[in-house]
Write the C-alpha cells for this entry.
Amino acid sequence: MEISEVKVRNEFFVSALFVESTITDYLSEKLNITDSINSELLGNHQNALSFSHKIDALLDSVNFSIIDKSKISVFREIYMEFIENKDAASLEDSFTSSDSNDDFLLILYPQNDYLPREEKLINACYQLIGEVSELVADQTQKPEVKISRRNRFLSLDNLKIGKFAALFSFLFIT
C-alpha cells in the first residue's frame, strides 16, 4: 500500500476516534451519565455500545438530512471495512462491501476523470472524513479538529483546537 493510502486510512481511524468520543460525550449528556469512561453503557467495557451502535444512537437522536445520514452511515461502513481488511494490498482492495461504498464515495464526491481510481478514492475519503467530522461536531455542539489540506503537516494555526488536537497531534507531526 502506498504512503498516501496508509495516511488516509490512519486519518480515517483518528477521525473515527474523534467521532466516537464526541458521540459518547453527547449521549452521556443526554442520559445524564457523569462518568462516561467507566459507564457500563458508554465506557470501555465488554457490554458497552459499539462504534456502530453509537452511530445508530446519534442518527436516531438527531434530525439529520437523508444525505447526511447516508454520509455518516457510509463513514461507519468504510471504517469497519478498513478494520476488517487491514492487510489489503491497496485502498481499493479495502472496499469489499456488497453496498459498493467506493462507488457511493465517487458519486458523492466526483473527481477529475484524469485521476487514477485510487487517487479518486483517497480524495473522496478525505472529503468524507471532513464532512462527517464537521456534521457530528455541529450537531453535538463539540469542537472539531480540522484538517486544512490533505497530506500536509498540521500546525496549531490549521486546527480548531478540540480535546483531541493535543492528544493526537503526535500522529500528524511525526
